[in-house]
Amino acid sequence: MTERIVVVGAALLDADHLLAARRSAPPELAGRWELPGGKVEQGETPEAALTRELREELGVEVEVIDRVPGEWPLRPPYVLQVWTAHLLPDSPEPKPLQDHDELRWLSRDELWSVPWLDQDIPAVKKVATRLPT
Ligand SMILES: Nc1nc2c([nH]c(=O)n2[C@H]2C[C@H](O)[C@@H](COP(=O)(O)OP(=O)(O)OP(=O)(O)O)O2)c(=O)[nH]1
């Protein structure tokens, strides 16, 4: 049986921006931008994994809203699934605590101003349709 591990990425949205995160490691991914998140652990729901990863990586508290339809292949055995999320009203602002060295809130017009990881581009295109023009 082929092992398949889901990586959950957050499309963290405010009214008209998406949060992009620049990876600081590993060296082959450093400097490229991604949707913050991480691997779903055994026995964990994707929503719980995303909440945990965003707390660890960004120091935020979020409400996970819904899944962006689709699934994008990463380096085997990983696949990327994306969920939209909002900051809870009493959440701190996101900070690059772990895995990232810069964060940016991007409007739809600014979405392609950062070098996304190649494998994230189809997912970001899908998320773009949820941002106002
Ligand atoms: N979080 C995240 N990881 C991505 C994206 N695109 C992409 O190729 N990846 C890759 C990078 C990593 O090889 C893998 C997820 O690793 P991660 O380092 O974020 O996950 P994690 O926090 O659970 O990692 P770890 O503690 O087990 O090292 O998926 C993306 O948009 N978000």
TrEMBL record:
Residues 3-129 form the Nudix hydrolase domain. Pfam families: NUDIX. It catalyses: 8-oxo-dGTP + H2O = 8-oxo-dGMP + diphosphate + H(+). Its cofactor is Mg(2+). GO terms for molecular function: hydrolase activity. Keywords: DNA damage, DNA repair, DNA replication, Hydrolase, Magnesium, Metal-binding, Mutator protein. It is an enzyme of class 3 (hydrolase). InterPro entries: MutT-like (IPR047127), Nudix_hydrolase (IPR020476), NUDIX_hydrolase-like_dom_sf (IPR015797), NUDIX_hydrolase_CS (IPR020084), NUDIX_hydrolase_dom (IPR000086). PROSITE patterns: NUDIX (PS51462), NUDIX_BOX (PS00893). Its EC number is 3.6.1.55. This is 8-oxo-dGTP diphosphatase. It comes from Streptomyces justiciae. The lineage of its organism: Bacteria, Bacillati, Actinomycetota, Actinomycetes, Kitasatosporales.
